[in-house]
Design goal:
elongated, three-stranded antiparallel sheet, 11 helices, 330 residues
Length: 330
């Protein structure tokens, strides 16, 4: 069956994602900027370029003059022409122009290029079974609008993962001098002249009592917080979040690490992946452990697998590992 362009685009992007995962992309595609992308195209033109690839380059730059070499055309090509492809690969734009996909296919040496009416393209030579989305390297995004999908509203707090209950803040409020003066003035205005000194003494005692209560609450709160975090300040991963613990406490089969207050508060494992939407791009990270996808709300090292770095989620991951799973379950 002939391959329609949207399927050809999907195959090209899968090949791009695979090379990205395996760290085999050309330099200009590893560090996406319009200038670096243009530089990569010029560099690739120093190798043999087929007639069909030349047409792709001329169409992209809008220069159909056959008297110029593709290298000369690319050198004169406006750098801003490369920006839409950069934005698309970063997940910042919707459906790309066909010429951008064809240029990408040329840059990654996609063997099925270019797309032609009535041509069947399988992508088997470029997308090897079992290697797509392996466990190495970061991934970049494919826009949600690629298939005309609409991003759903972000999940509410009730849909989120069960986390460690937030530690309540200890209220500490010391009366300001203005508050004190106001109370004293009010007392003076309402008191009888013969009781001015007595009222002043009461106000002073009230202020002193308020200060003492605040100090007691504040000191008690700090000791409670210190006790909660443990001696020295450490934490360990418990199911789907970090728990504070004393550094000298031993927990079987668990690694105790130095306390990171921000990480302890915000690092969570997402226990309901079906709540993840396209708006999670830039806010959610994932890992593929023993063939199973896991999702987290924090970047960095995997909380249970030492040395494994979490990777930023992309619309491609959402399409192929979340939406596809939800559709299957339905």
């Amino acid at each position: 069956m002939a391959t329609v362009f949207i399927d050809y685009q999907r195959l090209v992007m899968q090949a791009y994602e695979q090379q990205r995962e395996n760290n085999t992309l050309p330099h200009g595609l590893m560090y996406l900027t319009p200038a670096k992308l243009k530089e990569e195209c010029v560099k690739k033109c120093t190798t043999d370029v087929s007639r069909k690839d030349e047409k792709v380059i001329r169409d992209f730059c809008g220069d159909l003059s056959e008297s110029k070499s593709c290298q000369a055309i690319l050198q004169r090509c406006d750098t801003d022409k490369f920006r839409p492809l950069v934005n698309y690969l970063r997940g910042k734009s919707g459906r790309p122009d066909e010429k951008n996909i064809e240029l990408l296919a040329w840059l990654i040496d996609f063997r099925g290029r270019p797309w032609e009416m009535g041509k069947t393209i399988t992508g088997e030579e470029d997308i090897k079974e079992g290697l797509v989305l392996d466990d190495t390297g970061p991934a970049t995004g494919i826009p949600a609008a690629r298939f005309g999908l609409l991003a759903t509203p972000p999940p509410t707090s009730s849909d989120g993962p069960a986390g460690n209950p937030a530690i309540p803040e200890i209220p500490m409020h010391l009366p300001s001098m203005n508050d004190t003066k106001g109370k004293e003035n009010e007392s003076v205005e309402t008191a009888e002249p013969s009781k001015e000194k007595q009222t002043g003494r009461k106000s002073t005692k009230t202020l002193a009592a308020a200060v003492m209560i605040s100090l007691v609450l504040g000191t008690g709160g700090m000791w409670w917080w210190k006790d909660k975090l443990g001696s020295g300040g450490c934490m360990y991963w418990h199911e789907d979040h970090y728990e504070p613990v004393a550094c000298d406490q031993k927990i079987p089969y668990t690694t105790v690490i130095a306390l990171d207050a921000e990480k302890q508060q915000h690092f969570r494992k997402i226990t309901r992946p079906d709540t993840i939407t396209y708006q999670a791009v830039g806010k959610v990270w994932y890992a593929k452990i023993k063939g199973k996808m896991e999702y987290y709300t924090w970047a960095g090292e995997h909380p249970e697998v030492s040395g494994y770095q979490l990777k930023p989620i992309t619309p491609y991951i959402i399409d192929n590992h979340i939406h596809s799973t939800v559709s299957t379950n339905q």
